[in-house]
Amino acid sequence: MELFVLCAASLPAMALLHHALQPLVDARRRLPPGPRPLPVIGNLLDIDKDAPHRSLAGLARRHGPLMSVRLGAVLAVVATSPAAAREVLQRRSASLAARRGLDAWRVMGHDAHSVIALPPRGKWAALRRLAAAGLAGPRRLAEQAAVREEKARELARRVAAMSDAPVVVARVAFAAVVGVLCQAMFSEDLEPGLVDELTDVAVEASVLSGAPNVSDLYPALAAADLQGVRRRAGRLVAWLYALMDTQIERRRCSRADGEACKHDLLDMMLDMEGEVQEDGWVMNQDVMRALLMELILASASLSAATEWAMAELLQNPDTMKKLQEEIAAVVGTNRHLEEADLNHLPYLQAVVNETLRLHPAVPFATGLAEAAVEVQGYNIPK
């Protein structure tokens, strides 16, 4: 009992001593300057959870374009100027391009096959090439042009039919994007009820990915999953994996029955199944469903961008009017807008680019130092 009391009483003193000595330790390690962290919580109180980019910009004005910030127990080095960002993202990318995966998605072995969590080489590069060839290769884009135009018209008809009711832009946009993506991946649409359920799952997944998680800030506590974030993410991953498994098994059966190859992304992956790849990994069910799942969830960022664009246009009626006038001049009122028209709509392109600038899908480019490296005269520890 006395030992417990002694340890409990010494903890505050140890925390205060660590707080007092931290600047000296950082100076000897030649870390970038930054706001002085508090014991245990670090600089969390310096970061506004609703506008972290503004908080970091304010801190950078005081501490410089390359600064150290402690987020709980995690040391983060933040680059805020073009020169610092160029140094981190280009010149030192080989050492700093790895990723610190979110603890929420370390479930069912998903992080071992995730293009979001894998280091940017080998398996990660191969999966990205595969997805690009199956979805965005010149031949696939040409083959899917009619599908994209039909889904755009379906979206227009659906919104027009809801003219007397509120329209949740993100939901209808997500349904349209998922329709295009499923045609490219599976050569078929999902059932409408399944799309509605998938929309709810994608929204919850986005919330879990963006919410602060104690396990990410204090890795030593990750096993406890104190907020239950990993448990909630596990339910979502299980549901999504079941959906992907259904699609994979149906295709296996159709191929076994002698049906013609559809040459979509799923067929491309099944053609590679069981093959040992260049870096020793094997294309199997786990890899296939993880990639398909992440491509589906990525659709949520496109629908969110559509919603932000509409919100910004409603807040800026002059911009809305100018955009409507450009579309009317190029497309007219007697036909639908087509992909070929996009090259003649510079103002629409400017609206899209400004929306993505103001509301990027990933507001912070994050990396993990796989080795100690020097940036602008400061040490970035491993």
TrEMBL record:
<dbReference type="GO" id="GO:0020037">
    <property type="term" value="F:heme binding"/>
</dbReference>
<dbReference type="InterPro" id="IPR036396">
    <property type="entry name" value="Cyt_P450_sf"/>
</dbReference>
<comment type="similarity">
    <text>Belongs to the cytochrome P450 family.</text>
</comment>
<keyword id="KW-0732">Signal</keyword>
<dbReference type="GO" id="GO:0004497">
    <property type="term" value="F:monooxygenase activity"/>
</dbReference>
<dbReference type="GO" id="GO:0005506">
    <property type="term" value="F:iron ion binding"/>
</dbReference>
<dbReference type="InterPro" id="IPR001128">
    <property type="entry name" value="Cyt_P450"/>
</dbReference>
<dbReference type="GO" id="GO:0016705">
    <property type="term" value="F:oxidoreductase activity, acting on paired donors, with incorporation or reduction of molecular oxygen"/>
</dbReference>
<dbReference type="Pfam" id="PF00067">
    <property type="entry name" value="p450"/>
</dbReference>
<feature type="signal peptide">
    <location>
        <begin position="1"/>
        <end position="27"/>
    </location>
</feature>
<protein>
    <recommendedName>
        <fullName>Cytochrome P450</fullName>
    </recommendedName>
</protein>
<dbReference type="InterPro" id="IPR002401">
    <property type="entry name" value="Cyt_P450_E_grp-I"/>
</dbReference>
